[in-house]
Amino acid sequence: MTHAQDRALPRAVRLAMPLARDVVEEVAKLHGVCIRPVPLKRLDTHTGQWEIIDVPCGSPMDSKCPPCAKRNKQLRKAQCREGWHLDEEPTITPDEPSEEQRWLIEFRADIQAQRDDTERNGGDTTDLDAVIEGLDEEINTAGMRGNVLGRATSKRSRSTRRRQDAPDLPKRKMAHTTLGRTFQAPDGRTYRPSLFVTLTLPSYGKVRDGAPVDPETYDYARAARDALHFSKLVDRFVQNLRRVAGFDVQYFATVEPQKRLAPHLHMAIRGTLPRAEIKQTAAATYHQVWWPSVDEVVFEGEHLPVWGEGAGYLDPDTGEVLPTWDEALDDLDTDEDAEPLHVIRFGEQVDVKGVLAGTKDADQCIRYLSKYLTKSLGDGLDGQARQEHAARFLDALRYEPCSPTCPNWLRYGVQPKDAKAGMAPGRCRSKAHKPEHLGYAGRRVLVSRKWSNKTLAEHKQDRRTWVLEALGKADEPIDPHRYVWKPVSVGDANVAPLAVRLLRSVRERQRWRAHMAELQARADGQDLSATEGRAA
Question: Is the full-model pTM beyond 0.90?
Answer without folding.
Answer: no
